[in-house]
Specification:
Keywords: Oxidoreductase, Signal. With 564 residues, the chain is of the alpha+beta class. Among the domains are: 7-169, no CATH class; 176-300, Uridine Diphospho-n-acetylenolpyruvylglucosamine Reductase, domain 3, CATH 3.30.465.10; 302-381, Alpha-Beta Plaits. The protein is built from 20 helices and 20 strands. It has helices at 7-19, 24-30, 58-66, 71-75, 84-87, 130-143, 204-213, 231-235, 242-245, 248-251, 273-278, 317-333, 354-360, 362-370, 383-391, 411-415, 417-432, 479-499, 517-521, 526-536, and strands at residues 35-37, 48-49, 52-53, 123-126, 147-150, 166-169, 176-182, 193-199, 216-217, 252-259, 263-268, 289-296, 298-299, 303-309, 337-341, 344-349, 374-380, 407-410, 438-441, 463-467. Strands 7-8-12-10-11 form a five-stranded antiparallel beta sheet. The chain has a five-stranded antiparallel beta sheet with strand order 17-14-16-15-19, with helices on both faces. Strand 2 and strand 3 (52-53) form a beta hairpin. Helix 12 (317-333) crosses helix 17 (417-432). The longest helix has 21 residues, at 479-499. Bound molecules: flavin-adenine dinucleotide (FAD) and 2-acetamido-2-deoxy-beta-D-glucopyranose (8 copies). One 2-acetamido-2-deoxy-beta-D-glucopyranose is lined by residues 137-138, 141, 261-262, 539.
C-alpha cells in the first residue's frame, strides 16, 4: 500500500510530532495537568523562598506549627516527610526549610531565614492510574529527569525524596478489598487465600480498621501512617506478630506494578515470578511503581500482651537488660514479639494464656516492680483493640532528624556466653554515650519459611531481634556536629557488626551510612536482584540511596557528600 498524505494529514503529523517533544509542559498535558511544583512543607511560615520574597501565610503556618510532630499532616501532603533528613540538604545547613523541632513557634527558624528546597523533589505528580506512571517513565527516559516514589514519607534513608526529581505521589490510591477466597491471577492450582488487597497509598491505620470490619487480622507495622504496599513490604516489613506469622514479604500474594520498561504487570508466583521475588525484599523504589498489593490475612487473633515499665535511673537499666538477654531464647520459643528499651517491654504472644505469660515473664515483672515500676498482662481478642490502646498512642517522634542504626541479632548470639556478654558490653557502651537501646523483637522465629521464596536480607531467617540505638542532629546543627554524628553512628554500628559477623540488617531501619550494605542488606540475593533490575529497568530510570543497582559514585550527588 502506498501511503499518501494530504496536506491536512501532514500538518496533523507534524503537530503530533511537536506535541510529543520531551518537555515538562507536554508531559503535564499527557497526564491531565496534574504535574505540580513541589513546595516545602513549612514554606507558609517563611517570607522568603529560594531568595525571593513571598507572602507568609499565618493561618497555614499555624496549622503546620500545631502539627509539626504529627505524622498525619505530613503523610497526607506531597511534601510531607517524617524525618528532616529527607527534606534537608545535609551538607549545607542553610539549604533547608525547617522549623525548630523543639519549638515550632520559635521565630529563630523562619523570621530572618530563607526557605530553600534542600533535598526535596522539584515537582510531583499525584498518581491516579497505571497510565500516569507509564507516561512518567517515558518522560524520565527522554528528558533524564530522575523519578522518586513518595508514599507515606517514612523513609529514614531519604529514598522517597531527592533534589531535582519528579516525585510520583501514591498516597491517594486508597482502594481496599477483602476476599475470603483470593486466587492469584494465572494460578495453576486450586489454592485459595483469605486476603486483603490495598491500593498503594493505604496505610496501616486504614488497613487495620478495614481488617477489623471483616473480622480478620492483617500483619503490619507499629505505626499508624507507614504504608502497606510501599517500602515496608518491599523491603521485608516487620510486625510484632512476625515471630509467629512471618514478615510482610512472607504474606504478600500479588502485586500490580508498572515496571520502568513501561508495562503494567501482575507479579505473583505464576506471572513474572522473578519480579515477584524481587518485590519481596529487594526494596522499594527499584523495580517499578507498585499500584496495588494483596496480603494473606489471619482470622481474628487472640493473644496476650505484657506492658512492663519502670522509671530509669543510671544503675537500673543494665540489670534489666541482663535478665532480658538471658531469657530471649526461651521467650522466642513462646511466640513473644514486641519492643524493648532500657526500661520498657511491650510484647505480645498469640501462643500463651495469661497465666503462662505471667510465669514466662516473672523475672522482668518482679524487676520492674522492685524498681518502682508496673507490669500489666492482658488478653486481647483482636489486633485492633491492641492497636488502639498501645500502637496509636506510642508513635515514634516525627518532624526531627533521625538516623536509625540497627542490625539483626541472630539466635546464635544468645546461645553463647560470649554473645550474651558482648550484648551487655554494647548496652554499657551506649549507656555511657547517653543513649538507650531500641529493640524490635520481630524475627520470624517460629514462622515456617519456604527457603528462597523472598529476597529480603537472609539474616532475617536466623534473627530474633533487631537491635539499634540511633542518632540525630538538631534542625540547626552545624556541619562539624553533623560530621561527628555520622562518625558516632559508624562507631556504634561497628560494635554491633562485631557481635554479628557475617550477619545482616533490615535496610529500612539500618545505618544509612553502612559500608558493606550489599552484603548486609541482601547477601547472596544481590546478584540475582541486579539482573532482575536490569531486565525490568533496562534504562536505569529508578535509583535510590543504596538500593539494588546503586553505585558508590552516586554519593557525590547526594546531600551527604561533603559530610563523609
Ligand atoms: C515512625 C516510623 C515507624 C516505623 N515502624 C516500622 C515498623 O513497625 N515495621 C517496619 O518494618 N518498618 C517500620 N518503619 C520503617 C518503614 O518500613 C520504612 O520507613 C519504609 O520505607 C516506609 O515505606 P513507605 O512506603 O510507607 O514510605 P515512603 O518513604 O513513602 O517510601 C519508602 C520507600 O519505598 C518506595 N516506595 C513507596 N511506595 C512505593 C510503591 N508504590 N512502589 C514502589 N516503591 C515504593 C519509595 O520509593 C522509597 O524508596 C517505620 C518508620 C518510621 C519513620
Ligand atoms: C500543569 O498543568 C496544569 C493545568 O494546566 C497547571 O495548573 C500546572 O501549573 C502545570 N504544572 C506545571 C509544573 O507547570
Ligand atoms: C527509553 O529510551 C530508549 C532509547 O534511548 C528507547 O529504546 C526505549 O523504548 C525508551 N523506554 C521508554 C519506557 O520510553
Ligand atoms: C545471666 O546468665 C549468666 C550466665 O550466662 C549468669 O551469670 C547471670 O547471673 C544471669 N543473670 C541474670 C540476671 O539472670
Ligand atoms: C535506681 O533505682 C533503684 C530502685 O528504685 C534504687 O535501688 C537505686 O539506688 C537507684 N539508683 C540510683 C543511682 O539512683
Ligand atoms: C512447613 O511448610 C512445608 C512446605 O510448605 C510443609 O511441608 C511443612 O509441613 C510445614 N511444617 C510445619 C511445621 O507447618
Ligand atoms: C539552635 O536552635 C536552638 C533552639 O532550638 C538554639 O537554642 C540554639 O542557639 C541554636 N543554635 C545555633 C547554632 O544557632
Ligand atoms: C569513633 O571511633 C574512632 C576510633 O575509635 C574515634 O577516634 C572517634 O573519636 C569516635 N568518634 C565518635 C564521634 O564517637
Ligand atoms: C490537618 C491536621 O492534621 N490538623 C490538626 C492540627 O493540629 C490540631 C491541634 O492539635 C488538630 O486539631 C488538627 O486536626
Amino acid at each position: 500500500m502506498v501511503l499518501k498524505l494530504s496536506g491536512v494529514a501532514l500538518l496533523a503529523l507534524v503537530s503530533y510530532t511537536v506535541a510529543k517533544q520531551c518537555t515538562l509542559d507536554n508531559f503535564n498535558a499527557t497526564v491531565g495537568g496534574h504535574v505540580q511544583p513541589l513546595t516545602p512543607f513549612s514554606l507558609p511560615c517563611f517570607s522568603s523562598y529560594n531568595g525571593n520574597p513571598v507572602a507568609r501565610d499565618d493561618a497555614a503556618c499555624a496549622v503546620i506549627q500545631a502539627n509539626y510532630s504529627d505524622p498525619w499532616l505530613r503523610t497526607n501532603s506531597p511534601s510531607g516527610y517524617m524525618n528532616n533528613q529527607d527534606e534537608m540538604w545535609a551538607s549545607d545547613p542553610t539549604d533547608q526549610c525547617l522549623l525548630d523541632s523543639s519549638d515550632p513557634t520559635d521565630p529563630l527558624a523562619y523570621a530572618d531565614a530563607d526557605c530553600r528546597q534542600g533535598n526535596l523533589p522539584s515537582h510531583y505528580l499525584e498518581v491516579q492510574s497505571p497510565r500516569d506512571v507509564i507516561e512518567a517513565f517515558k518522560f524520565s527516559n527522554c528528558s533524564g529527569k530522575q523519578l522518586v516514589i513518595k508514599n507515606s514519607g517514612h523513609d529514614y534513608l531519604t529514598r522517597s525524596s531527592g533534589r531535582d526529581t519528579l516525585s510520583l505521589w501514591t498516597r491517594n490510591l486508597r482502594s481496599m478489598h477483602y476476599s475470603p477466597s483470593f486466587t492469584p491471577s494465572g494460578s495453576k492450582n486450586t489454592a485459595r487465600y483469605n486476603a486483603i488487597t490495598v491500593g498503594a497509598g493505604v496505610n496501616f491505620d486504614e488497613a487495620y480498621a478495614f481488617a477489623q470490619e471483616h473480622s480478620v487480622t492483617i500483619l503490619g507495622g507499629y505505626s499508624s501512617t507507614v504504608g502497606v504496599s510501599g517500602g515496608w513490604v518491599q523491603n521485608g516489613g516487620h510486625s510484632i506478630l512476625s515471630p509467629v506469622y512471618g514478615l510482610g514479604v512472607d504474606r504478600v500474594l500479588e502485586y500490580k506494578v508498572v515496571t520502568p520498561d513501561g508495562v503494567y504487570r501482575t507479579a505473583n508466583e505464576f506471572q513474572n515470578p522473578d519480579l515477584f521475588w524481587a518485590l519481596r525484599g529487594g526494596g522499594g523504589g527499584t523495580f517499578g511503581v507498585v499500584l496495588e498489593s494483596t496480603h494473606r490475612v489471619e482470622p481474628a487473633i487472640r493473644f496476650v500482651s505484657a506492658n512492663i515499665k519502670f522509671p530509669a535511673n543510671s544503675t537500673n537499666m543494665l540489670p534489666f537488660m541482663e535478665i532480658i538477654v538471658n531469657n530471649t531464647l526461651k521467650w522466642s520459643q513462646e511466640g513473644w514479639g514486641g519492643h524493648i528499651t532500657g526500661n520498657t517491654l511491650v510484647n505480645v504472644s498469640p501462643l500463651l494464656s495469661v497465666d503462662q505469660a505471667e510465669a514466662s515473664l516473672a523475672s522482668v515483672i518482679a524487676y520492674a516492680r522492685a524498681n518502682g515500676g508496673s507490669a500489666t498482662i492482658e488478653e486481647f481478642t483482636s489486633w485492633y483493640s491492641f492497636y488502639d490502646k498501645y500502637v496509636k498512642t506510642s508513635s515514634v517522634a516525627v518532624g526531627v532528624t533521625r538516623f536509625p542504626g540497627s542490625r539483626l541479632i541472630s539466635r546464635s548470639v544468645f546461645e553463647t556466653a560470649k554473645g550474651r556478654s558482648d550484648l551487655m558490653s554494647f548496652f554499657e557502651t551506649i549507656q555511657s554515650l547517653g543513649q538507650t537501646p531500641y529493640i524490635p523483637v520481630v524475627g520470624p522465629v517460629l514462622y515456617n519459611y519456604t527457603e528462597g521464596s523472598t529476597s529480603a536480607a537472609p539474616a532475617w531467617r536466623d534473627a530474633i531481634w533487631e537491635l539499634g540505638s540511633g542518632a540525630s542532629w538538631a534542625w540547626n546543627s552545624t556541619v562539624p556536629t553533623r560530621k561527628k554524628t555520622i562518625q558516632s553512628i559508624q562507631n556504634t554500628t561497628a560494635i554491633i557488626e562485631g557481635i554479628t559477623p557475617g550477619g545482616g540488617a533490615y535496610s529500612n531501619e539500618a545505618n544509612l551510612f553502612t559500608i558493606d550494605w550489599i552484603e548486609s542488606w541482601w547477601g547472596d540475593n544481590y546478584e540475582k536482584l541486579v539482573s532482575i533490575k536490569k531486565k525490568y529497568d533496562p534504562f536505569g530510570l529508578l535509583s535510590c540511596w543504596k538500593c539494588v543497582g546503586w553505585k558508590e559514585s552516586q554519593v557525590a550527588d547526594s546531600s551527604y557528600a561533603a559530610l563523609l
